[in-house]
Amino acid sequence: xxxxxxxxxxxxxxxxxxxxxxxxxxxxxxxxxxxxxxxxxxxxxxxxxxxxxxxxxxxxxxxxxxxxxxxxxxxxxxxxxxxxxxxxxxxxxxxxxxxxxxxxxxxxxxxxxxxxxxxxxxxxxxxxxxxxxxxxxxxxxxxxxxxxxxxxxxxxxxxxxxxxxxxxxxxxxxxxxxxxxxxxxxxxxxxxxxxxx
Length: 197
What we know:
Distance between the termini: 109 Å
Helix content: over 70%
Number of strands: 4
Shape: rod-shaped
Strand order of the largest sheet: 2-1-3-4
Radius of gyration: 47 Å
Largest sheet: 4 strands, mixed
């Protein structure tokens, strides 16, 4: 074989080898591109699912927050209504006619008195609970009591009702305290009647 033929044969084999390498490279590029497209599609699908779940979670959180806020507003409205009911009851008690007011104060005094020797402190503007009224109560106390209830010269910051004082012991029978005690006892029942469940 001549040198020229040898060279041509080598070149031909080199071209074939180059073509084979190139084909192999093309196949690898094609395979990688297909793999990339598959991964890209899977990633895109996963991203869409995450975005959808995130949107659903966000929507659920917003809905839960809105429901909680609504519940708070409803509770506040109910609380305001109950406050209004008890405030009106207080105003009604405090503005009763003298007879009804003194009847109530008399019953409170009869229940609160321990010895009949207590001092009665009334509010600064109280005019209905006076010494004459206490004389009547002293007569009603009966045996076992000293019958010496007396009106204190001291005035308290009360708007209806009185304080009953014996030594260092003091019982608050003001209308505010009376209403607070009643409220504690009946508020749940009243709320159920007013608002149902």
